[in-house]
Specification:
Distance between the termini: 62 Å
Largest sheet: 6 strands, antiparallel
Number of domains: 2
Structural class: alpha+beta
Shape: globular
Length: about 425
């Protein structure tokens, strides 16, 4: 039997164990259960003295590591891990996960989180970290012997660094990262087409700016080019400097695959993953249920207007506060598919939402056939006020042109118009369908 100790901000919360049979177990630490700051690791694993066993445990930890099989295999090769099993991977890179979770070998000293220990990086250093994947280096962890170990979920090439005192740094020990750096996705090839995502950095940058202009709370981002290597720098909202700025707190959070106990392999509704109805049901118990349910339904409209087809369960998250009070996090990971619609790539009929809407006959995923009535039918289905849904639809439609103007005027002169114009045109086209 193998065990990893699970910590949040230097406090032991429990133990993650894998039996010789491969079965996963998690048990909360007794002292944590009695702590005034106690909270569940996940809403799918609520506080209790008895251990949790099986798929819920496996899926929770599986959601902490990269989705991509290729990246997982690179981690195994780089660190000589035993397998791509979440336990084996987290044994090597679990020290800085999404949210507040840190995993360390059983019996290790508690991580010293109340300090900032880091090495400043030059532009050349950052460029080498960003391009490390070309030499099979996973998540920018160049040296298998170094103590820079991070775990980032998702399928895209990325890494994370610390930005402190105006300087990019490589954190050491228990010092967390503060920014995620995402590389261009590149070309996605299938047997009959090539989807060009070489400008995904600009695409995501623009989509996040558009979402913010509509009034959404979003992750802050910027485009950086250290030594000519382009990346999107996204400030982590699961990190926060302490009041005296001598250490960085990790803020507990989880995505909706973790909330619902779903496998990352089932993050899309069509694959059996969480649908609008499931997430709206979970948000009934949130700290601010009316506000969060309104935000979530408004986000479904935003994703459709943007042609953002990747709004699956892992791209929605909650903060978990003490006493298991929870609330939605800012939006993140938004990409429009509109720039990929052309003769050589995708047709408009190929654009499908990650979460369906209700139609008069069956579920509706296809963006081009969705209209106002589908949002209203879905609102009715999930117990959301029709009056409130109508207000959302009217507001989003009315604000679209001003949002486009505001965002367009602030874009750099060098921003590629072959990214911005298809997105703006798609927004105008789809928002017009909401006009009654």
């Amino acid at each position: 039997m193998d065990t990893l100790d699970v910590y949040m901000n230097g406090i032991k919360t429990g133990e993650y164990t894998r039996a010789h049979s491969g079965a996963s177990t998690f048990i909360y630490d007794k002292a944590w259960l009695e702590s005034p700051g106690r909270r569940s690791l996940s809403l799918s694993l609520p506080l209790r003295t008895a251990p949790y066993k099986g798929l819920k445990v496996y899926n929770y930890f599986d959601n902490l590591i990269p989705d991509s099989r290729e990246i997982r295999e690179r981690i195994v090769a780089h660190f000589h891990a035993d397998s791509t099993d979440p336990f084996d991977i987290l044994s090597h890179i679990g020290r800085d996960c999404v949210g507040a979770v840190q995993l360390v070998p059983h019996g290790s000293l508690a991580p010293n989180v109340h300090t900032i220990d880091a090495t400043p990086l030059s532009e050349d250093d950052i460029a080498k970290i960003l391009t490390g994947y070309k030499s099979n280096t996973p998540l920018g962890m160049l040296d298998a012997e170094a103590d820079f170990r991070i775990s980032l979920a998702g399928a895209q090439e990325k890494t994370a660094l610390l930005f402190h005192n105006g300087q990019w740094c490589l954190p050491h020990g228990a010092t967390p990262t503060t920014h995620i750096l995402k590389l261009p996705i590149g070309e996605i090839r299938s047997h009959d087409r090539v989807i060009d995502m070489t400008h995904s950095v600009e695409n995501e940058y623009l989509c996040l700016k558009i979402a913010k202009a509509y009034g959404f709370d979003t992750a802050d981002c910027d485009i950086i080019t250290p030594d000519g290597v382009k990346a999107l720098s996204v400030e982590r909202f699961d990190r926060k400097f302490a009041a005296d700025r001598t250490w960085i707190m990790r803020l507990p959070q989880e995505d909706f695959c973790q909330v619902t106990g779903a496998s990352p392999a089932r993050k899309y509704e069509v694959e059996g993953g969480p649908a609008v109805s499931r997430i709206m049901k979970e948000l009934v118990g949130a700290q601010r249920p009316i506000q969060d349910r309104e935000i979530f339904m408004r986000t479904q409209v935003l994703f459709w207007i943007l042609g953002a087809t990747d709004g699956h369960a892992k791209n929605f998250s909650i903060f978990i506060d003490k006493g298991d009070q929870y609330r939605l996090t800012p939006l993140y990971d938004i990409l429009s598919a509109f720039p990929t619609v052309n003769k050589k790539s995708l047709h408009e009929k190929d654009l499908k939402l990650a979460m369906s809407l209700k139609g008069s006959r069956g579920r509706k995923y296809e963006c081009r056939i969705i209209s106002r009535r589908h949002f209203l039918a879905t609102a009715n289905e999930v117990g959301f006020s029709g009056e409130a849904m109508n207000k959302i639809l009217d507001d989003m439609a009315a604000r679209t042109e001003q949002v486009i103007e505001d965002v367009a005027t602030k874009l750099p002169h060098s921003f590629p118009t072959f990214i911005s114009e298809p997105i703006f045109e798609g927004m105008r086209k789809y928002s017009q369908r909401l006009v009654t």
